[in-house]
Each structure stands twice: as structure tokens, then as C-alpha cells.
Amino acid sequence: MLEMQGLLNGFALALTPVNLLFGFIGAVLGTAVGVLPGLGPAATISLLLPITYALGSPLTSIIMMAGIYCGAMYGGSTTSILLNIPGEAASVVTCIDGYKMAKNGRAGAALGISAIGSFIAGTFGIIALTFIAPPLSSFALKFGPTEYFSLTLLGLTLAAFLSGKSMLKGMIMAVFGLLLATVGIDPVGGALRYTFGTMILMDGFDFLALAMGVFGIGEILISLEEDMNSELVTTKIKDIYPTMKDWLESRWAILRGTVIGFGVGLLPGGGAVMASMIAYAIEKRVSKTPERFGEGAIEGVASPESANNAASSASFIPMLTLGIPGNPAIAMIFAALLIQGVQPGPFLIVDHPDVFWGVIASMYIGNVVLLFFNLPLVGVWVQMLRVPYSIMAPLIVMICSIGVYSLKNDVDDVLMMFIFGIFGYILRKFKFELGPLILAFVLGRILERSLSQALIISSGDVSVFVTKPISAVLLGIVFLMLLTPLALMLREKKSEV
Amino acid sequence: MKRWERIAAISLFLIGVGGAIGAWQIGFGTFQAPGPGFFPFWLATLLALLSLVFFVRNLGADATPMVLWAQGSWVRPLKAVCVMFVYVLLIGRLGFISSSALLFVAWLRIVEHSSWKTVALLVVGGTAGLYLFTSLLSISLPRGILI
Lengths: 497, 147
Description:
Number of domains of chain B: 2
Number of strands of chain B: 0
Number of helices of chain B: 5
Number of strands of chain A: 2
Strand content of chain B: under 5%
Helix content of chain B: over 70%
Strand content of chain A: under 5%
Oligomer: heterodimer
Number of domains of chain A: 1
Order of helices and strands of chain A: HHHHHHHHEEHHHHHHHHHHHHHH
Structural class of chain B: mainly alpha
Structural class of chain A: mainly alpha
Shape of chain B: flat
């Protein structure tokens, strides 16, 4: 009942003309930038973050960011279907059957089922978010610094574990991100750390400079190495609404994708990418005609697209209730809220119920907006894809520079962003995952603060982390995850012998 | 790829060792009262250890030698980096709008080899767009000897 009351209040706030307008602008802008190849939700949010800062109100800002996030997820599938280049990582598998469908003259059906599947899955995710988030927040209120330390550690380990092919590389990136977060003034005692006597490092690294550099500039540099010449399906896109046959073929795929996506999206580090891949693999496995997959099967579009949208909604749960962002895009929203003076976590629902319920209500609205406005606008998105990357690149550099500069009016931050851009480029070349780095950077201060507090409270007794039940369970999961690669390695060695 | 992975591992190891020494010097404190170097010390040590494991896992011959940069593929990113650094240097002197116009010219000519006609069109359009964007959002940008 309290949930319904909160949700109604949230709707009252989200439906004010200003919030509605910025939610709509966010969804459209997010789609427009998300459509561009290579620019995923994290890069899209980082590019558009300065606009949300200029708004002033935390609620309007997060409503706009939620719109950008959902829009970017939607935009990514358009690029995958029409260009065979994933607009974002979560749409990689959509390329396989989506592009084939487009080549077979069924681009409209692919885009339509992708949008409708996304809408159904997204709505299911938000309904679940509405009812799961409040009790989870209440539970999380029992958490002290010990539990927070273990939970944050679990989030980071999961991020490293699920980020890519190599867990070791993911862990190295997570530790590196934590180390980067320690640069600057020590939050407890005020001592200077790793500043090398320079003024530029005294305030520490700016999150926006790091995120825009690593995601925005790094992506541009890597794209300069390759020519993004892929054949755009330019035939007139028609019949965007699925036929009865399409429905019958894809209804279970949408349902399975939704459930898988929601489950995976709840995990920190899981997110939309993992969800879409698992959903596609399962769909192919359960299909009576798996040979159609790869040749333009509509289920091959419906399932991963539903999964990545359900995961997007689910990934708001750990951020809003526990204060643990699950993926880089959510980490951007998390950091932006911190800058606006709002601390996401269990107290959010108590301290800022307007923000908590406002964002949930705005996601319901955003989903409807995306379905009813974006589908008819598909022709516009196709035109966006015609803009050559050679023109987009200097524009992105300029927008990133304004964004980073406008935060503190400091040109040094722009310089820092370019340095992080080179860093991001090198990391991509060496196939290091960027997600754990960004997540760790955001979580660094929380982890350090909770560790210090837990040690001070327990008079330096480290065993407190395993004697408190919740913390012990969380650390147990961390331990098991760390053992998994070792166990796999041993099994491989055994089978070689 | 293994050779490059080893180079990455050594670099990260050195950062870890340097970070741990630096953290110790800042002040490790005690477990009862952690100093400012306590948390960074453990992180840097962990980074060094993980890099060491990474190095060991990449020992031996490379089964599939991989070229990190195909012939000439580094040229355009390098040109772009140079253009970006000159851009930062110019922002404070010429102002944001003027230096952004120059960024457009340099990028399109040096990195993309676009025609002068395309450059002219985009510089005018891009700069006007930038001016409008920043005016609408009331962002105060650095002004220089031009605008």
C-alpha cells in the first residue's frame, strides 16, 4: 500500500510539465546519441551529463538521465538492425538476426518487435522495481560499515567476474580504479595522497573527466583506427507493427528474455550486456528450429532486446536501495546524483522520497514515450546514421570539453579528460574491461570509509568481517567467486593430463 | 598478444610497488586507527600481486602472435591526440569558441583529410551550434583574445 502511495506521489511529480518535458527530451536525446555507432549508454550519459547539471533540481536531472539511459538502450538496437554495428554492447547479439531480417526486407518488423519487446520487458522490470525496492531499502538499513564494506567488495568482485573474458584483467581494473579514487585529499584526515606536489591533483581525479575521457575520447581514438564502413539498410522502413505470426513466434522469447534480463540485471556487474547474451543463447537452445537463428529469426531479436531492457530497469534496484551501482551507465547516474547532493542508498527513500518515487514513475512514462514516439521516428534515426563519423568525432570532442569544463570552470579538467582518453584507448588496445574501472572509481570512497569505520569501531579486529552474519555471507560469495577461476584452471589441467 | 600482456603486467606492477611505497610514506597508521596511507597501501600491494599473477600467466611463447597496431593504424589516433592537446593549450588564450572552430579545421583537415568546402561548412555550422548550445544552457566558457 505504501508503495502505491509513493508511486502515486511519484507520478504527480513526474507528470509536472517541466519533468515530463525533460524526461521526453532525455529519451529522445538518449536515442539520438545512442543510435550513433560505438556510443553506448555510458558514453551517451557522460556526453549529456552537463545538460542535466544545468537543470539544478536533482529530481528533474535523474528523470532526464533515466530517459537518456532507456533511450540509449533503445537506440543501440536500431544501429544493430540497420547497420550491423552494435550501437552499444548490449545489442551485439541483436546484430546477428536483426541485420539479417533487415537484409531480408523485414527491418520494420525487427525494429517493431525490438521496441515492443523492450516496452514489455522494461515495464515488467519497473513494476518489479516498484515492489522490490522499498523492502530491500528497509533491509539495507540494518547495514553497518562492516556489511557495507563486504557488499561493496561483492559488487566489485561481481563486476570483475562478469565483465569480460578475463576475471584477472577485470580485477586488475577494479583495483586500479580504487587506487585512482584515492588520489587527492584523504576524506578522513585531510592528508594529501599521490598529488606529487601539484595543484591539479589536489582535488583528486574528476569523475566526469575520467568517464568522458575513457568512454567518449577513448572510443573516438579507437574508431579512428578502423573505417566504420558498414552497409546501411536504407530501404524504406515499413510495417513496423508486428503481424500475428510475428507475435506468436516471439511471445515466449519476450517472456523468457524479460525474466532472464531482470535476474541478471539485479547483479552488480551483470547488466544488460550479459543479459542479452544469455537470453540469446537460451532462446537458441530451447528453439525447435535453432537453424533459423543467424538467418533472421525474429526470436533472436525479441529475446535479447527484451532481456537488455529488463536488465536496465533491474540495475536501478541495487543503486537506489543499496547505493551500489551495477554497471558503468548506472555509475554515471550515481555520480551525478552525488554531485547534486543526493546520496543513493537505503536512506534515499526516506530522505528523498520525491527523487526515489519520481524516478520510478518517470521510467513508466519514459517507456511509453519510447514506444509511441520512437517507433514513428525511426526514419529520423536512420538519417542520424547517415552522418559520417568523421564529422561526429570533432563534435563529440567539443561537447565532452564543454561538459567537463562547465563543472568547475577549469581548463585543467579538459586536459585531464584527454589524458584519460589516451588511457582508455590503451586499455581498449590491451583488451582491459573499462566497466570495473569506472565502478571501482565511484565506489572507492564508500569502500574506504566503510573499511576505516569498521576497523575503528571494532578496535582493529579484522575478524568482525566474518563474525557478523550478513557480512560473512557476502564475503563467502566473494570467496567462492574468486575460487571459481582457480577451480576451472585445475579442471582444465586435469583434463589435459 | 602475450608479449604486450607482459609489458602491461610489468607497468602495472611498477605502479603497484610505487603506490605501496608512496602509501607507506603518507602514513599507514594501525589497524585500530588507519592512517591516510592504509587503504591505498593495501590496494597498491594487491595491484602489484595481481600484475605478478598476470605476468606469470603470460609467460612462454605466443601461440597466436598479435600485432597491437596494424601498419599505420596508429597515425590517425596520434594526429587526433596532437590536435586535442593543441586545442587545450589554445582554449585559455583564444577562448572556447575560437579554439573550437580551430579544432574543427584541424581535425577535418589533418585527421580526416576533408575538403576545404566541407571544412568551411562544418566550421560555420558547428561554431554557430556551439554558441547556441552554450547560450541556451548559460554555460560560461573561457573568453580569449577573439571570442
